[in-house]
Amino acid sequence: MTRIGRLPILFVALLLVSAGSLLIGRYPIPLSALGAAVSGANPLLHALLVHVRLPEILAAVMVGAALSVSGSTFQALFMNPLVSPSILGVLSGAAFGAALGIVLGLPWGLAQVISFGFGLLAVLVALFISRLYPVNPVLMLVLGGIISGALFTALLTMVQYLANPYTQLPTIVYWLMGNLSGVRLSELRIMAIPILLAVLALTAFGKTMNVLSMGDEEAHALGVSVHWARIWIIVIATIASALTVSLAGMIGWVGLIVPHIARFMVGPDNRLLIPASALMGGLFLVIADDISRTVFPVEIPLGVVTDLVGIIAFVLVLHRLRKGWKA
Amino acid sequence: MNLSASQLAYAYGRRTVLENISLEIRPGESVALLGANGSGKSTLIRLLLGIIQPLSGEIRIDDIPLSALTSRERARRLAYVPQDHGAVFPFLVQDVVLMGRMPHQSWLGGARAHDRAEMEKALERLGIADLARRSYTELSGGQRQLVLIARALAQEAPILILDEPVTGLDYGNQHRLMAQIQDLARSGFAVLQSSHYPEHALAAATRVILLKDGRVLADGPAESVICPDHMRALYGVDIEFVDLGDGRRVLVPTANQKLPLVV
């Protein structure tokens, strides 16, 4: 089968798994009651379906897609398949922003905006540091990201220390574990558009990313304005990953693992890899979320599940690393 | 198209690495750029490619200053073959070569029939058409270098700049690659390659430019520029020429000389 032919298959798989996931959880919806749940004839099941399950699954698709797409993007940009969306400090920044919002007692919507803002700020700090010594831009960006990430992690620890240990601290810690339950449709409506635009824009940058992944000097010689292309791509991928943190907290490993699975399916061409990562990332997180809802009597945080699943997947990926990422 | 540079100077901070560099590469010429480690070869290549800007002086392609061209316009005139390198992601060879078509395509546009034709032509010209559907990451160093040259050919740029194209290749591949590069120059490309091998320059280059401490030490036909005095000045090694009797000369280091290690 051609590689592009696998995209529709992934899409159908995502639709089917998402639809099936609506029915499972602590309170399963039997197929026989599905009609009543959809129509509202059974108000309880209707509420469960529309106000609990649907937002959670839509959020899983969006967060999984956004994290995976930014993971693929950063891996191409840094010419390193072990890079994750956290490379430039965006996740640390957004985590600090959200914790700050919680400690200041702001309404959750405002805390989310602050979280997003600090995610962007953290990447700006990394970009600024990299410009201080612009000899090897890629290496300096990595160092800038390490510094920026460490800075905001330190600030996050400080905020946690200052937080009220009985009310605010548990909220922060629980939120940092990464969670999709309690997501509202109204939030999703705001975030769906930028995430979708980011996926489309990064797909459009696919050809440029292919060339950038061969190295700066070659990209330059092939007619790419390396500096500006890289900044645009970083900004778009940062927006996507910062949004996931303000929506769902820290969801680990997805952005590192899914690009490998997607690359295995469609190859390294970013014009295919980016949309494939989006679909595969959605699928991955919907399934991880199903596990978090069903395996234990209580819903365990999604971030814990992705950590566990991610670690297993990573061991399998390491096996492939040894063979040199052949596709 | 001619690539010319006049009075180029460049410095990293306060350390001057290139000074008063003037040169010209014409179609049909295969020019070798020789110099010791740290003589400024790589910096000169980066300047000629427009990756870094000279402190003073100017680079022109025909009569147009390099800095006046857009990235795409420049890429349609000037192609670059980097030193052999592995790639991280397993692109197919045909996709790597198609990247050379980028300056001819729109930002979003994919490869059209014409682009594919140029890709196939480039692969065939270098005799590696059978590699088209192999993964770039599983090729040998010599094959990878040929793929990168094919990419430069697909770029349809009349000027080729190669950075130490044979470094790291085995003996046979070095000579095969030198022959390919010589062919390209004969067919009308303007070729500049940096090299660590005066023997190769003597055998294959129509002209040689010697770079020492950021200045041009000599610029002229290989037979006259590559001489014992220049080689001693460039590398600190005494050499002798051996005439093979058929018009060819080879150079060998003089026996039993004391060679302190200079890095």
Question: How would you describe what is shown here?
Answer:
The complex is a heterodimer of chains A (327) and B (263). Helix content of chain A is 75%, strand content 0%. The mean pLDDT of chain A is 92. The longest helix of chain A is centred in the first third of the chain and has 35 residues. Chain A is mainly alpha-helical and 327 residues long. The two termini of chain A are 14 Å apart. Chain A has a single domain, classed as ABC transporter involved in vitamin B12 uptake, BtuC (Orthogonal Bundle). With 263 residues, chain B is of the alpha/beta class. Helices cover 32% and strands 27% of the residues of chain B. Chain B has nine helices and twelve strands. Chain B is globular. The two termini of chain B are 37 Å apart. The mean pLDDT of chain B is 92.
The CATH class name of chain A reads Mainly Alpha
First-to-last CA distance of chain B: 37 Å
Shape of chain B: globular
Q: What's the helical proportion of residues of chain A? A: over 70%
CATH topology of chain A: ABC transporter involved in vitamin B12 uptake, BtuC
What's the number of domains of chain A?
A: 1
**How many separate domains make up the residues of chain B?**
1
What is the β-strand count of chain B?
12
Name of the CATH first level of chain B: Alpha Beta
User: Whole-Å distance between the termini of chain A?
Assistant: 14 Å
Most strands sheet of chain A: none
Oligomer: heterodimer
pLDDT < 50 stretches of chain B: none
Features:
heterodimer; A: 327 residues; mainly alpha; ABC transporter involved in vitamin B12 uptake, BtuC; 14 helices; 75% helix; 0% strand; B: 263 residues; alpha/beta; Rossmann fold; 6-stranded mixed sheet; 4-stranded antiparallel sheet; 9 helices; 12 strands
